[in-house]
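S.,

Sequence below, as promised.
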Amino acid sequence: MRHSSAGDSGPRRSKAQNNDDFDMDSRFSNPTNDGYGFQSMDEYPSASTDSTPVTVTSRSTARNIEEESTTTPGGFYMMEETKVGQFKKGRYGKLEDQYLAWMSEYLHEKFGADIYKPMGPEELKGSGTLPTWMYDLRSLPNLAIPVSYFCVGIALNLLRTPLIVYFVEDLNASAAQVNVLFTAMAVPWCFKMFYGLLSDCCPISGLRRRPYFMTGWCIFVLCNIILAVTPGPGIPFTTLMVFLQTSAFMLSDVMVDALIVERSRYEPLAQRGTMQSKSYVIRFFGSIIGSTIGAVVYNKGTWDFYLPINAIFFLNAVIPLIILFPLIPFLVEIETNCEPINFFYQVGEIFNTVQLRSVWQPMTFVYVYNAMQLSNGAWMNFLVEGLEFTAWNLGLIAIMGSIMSCLGVYVYKEYFFGSNWRIVYIWCTSLAWIFGLGQLILIFGLNEQIGIPNLLFGMGDDVLEEFFMAVQFLPMCIMYLSLCPEGSEGSTYALLTTWSNLAGSVAYDISTVLTEFVDVSAATIEYGDYSGIWKLTLIASIASPIPLLLLGLIPKNKEDQKLLQKDKYRDFWAGVLFLTVMVVTLLITFAESIYEVYATDDSLQDARRRKLTRLVVGRW
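The prediction came back faster than expected:
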């Protein structure tokens, strides 16, 4: 049997002392408790009357127990009976688990409280009683997961407004330099699949997730601290640091997604996706907090009070440092003895996965649906140039949009979790389409004729559309959970989410191209000619429900998906087409980013710079 090198043998005791332990401590005599998968630390003589020895095993070694041994849960420890004449008191064998080991043992021995019960061999195989912490995001082994989602939500939104205002107003950035900043924030999203491959193929000390999770957040905090202590950071340096910190928290985000996927395997089918749904509610709530802070703390154009940019960078670093870092030592991975995997083998496994009908068929609908959710590419210009919305007005719309997105995810989790996915898509797409057409009312000024102000109507129209799109966001995320093969959770889940995000970028590109065929220039909008604006709104509204014609490609629900997954036939050309579309879309996204950097006029006139500061609170 393989034992951890971190375990050292302790002093031997007499049989009497061991018998006292068994009489006084019920953790060794209660067969109903879940076992703790600890590595061997201290050796003792056997305490049993027949001198049958027992040895503690870890959950990783418990899978390969020799035939002549039997394993039984012994309360606080997992006990293995062998033919070796000794008793080993077990603790954790992983150095990075010592904090959790110390806390678990102290609270159990002093107060009788169990805060962590790892899965034993039977639980890992899907039988037996699972420990309660597996389903509880508030438990200490899981608490870092929802807190990380919360911090990601803040990180996505807190710097958005302050950075662009700082670039345009304080550093007099050119349009090209602003586009470079946008690119630095957008490109790391394309790295998610590579982060997943890295963690799947190259575990660190037997762990595939937590070391990379810790690394990502450490780099994020470090980048923000460097910016905070740098007096007046310049454009190139700030852009570089923003790129690094975005890449860093994307790395951590991929890891926490993989941890959720791994845990979801042990959720009952009817409840599968519950932990993920709760996590996304928390993430959207973090977005609300981040949007609010970002719109308030650096609103130089409206209020006299604002924080300097260095203080905002410091605030961005302190939030995860205070609320997340203390929980990282207690974060638990289910698998603690992972072996490295050959990169090309892992890529081959991904290719085998996308050849399955249960993968390429529903993902075809996801791509087409997201690619057809067009937007009015000139809408933000219309709000600024035509209706003269201020940065604070747009900030309110962004904040309310985040609130309604969070509410939409929560409503789905609470009231539509077991609903037919196709019905959810039909209703949400139809209602979003109706409210999308509400833009025409604002364009033609019909709302003012009935006494509704532009800001109030625009806020209600946009945020309700955000609500319905958030409701239909979760069904496909839940579907992704079951599509990830064991051992490839990080790379496969990142692949599927990247596929969905890239389709969204296609919709953005199409929306942008459409602005070239109608006159929506700033001068035209300022003159009061909104004919191009209403045409773009009409085109986007017509396109959005068309993908519902392919709705039959997705399963009706989790049970229907399970039936679809029984089809193990692999279609080679379907897999080739899947990866080809993804690679081509990825290359187009990179090419577009490069174009945005180099194909923009290097100068911004004062009026355009002033208008750009109004646009910075728009949603990306």
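The longest strand covers residues 39-44.

Coffee later?
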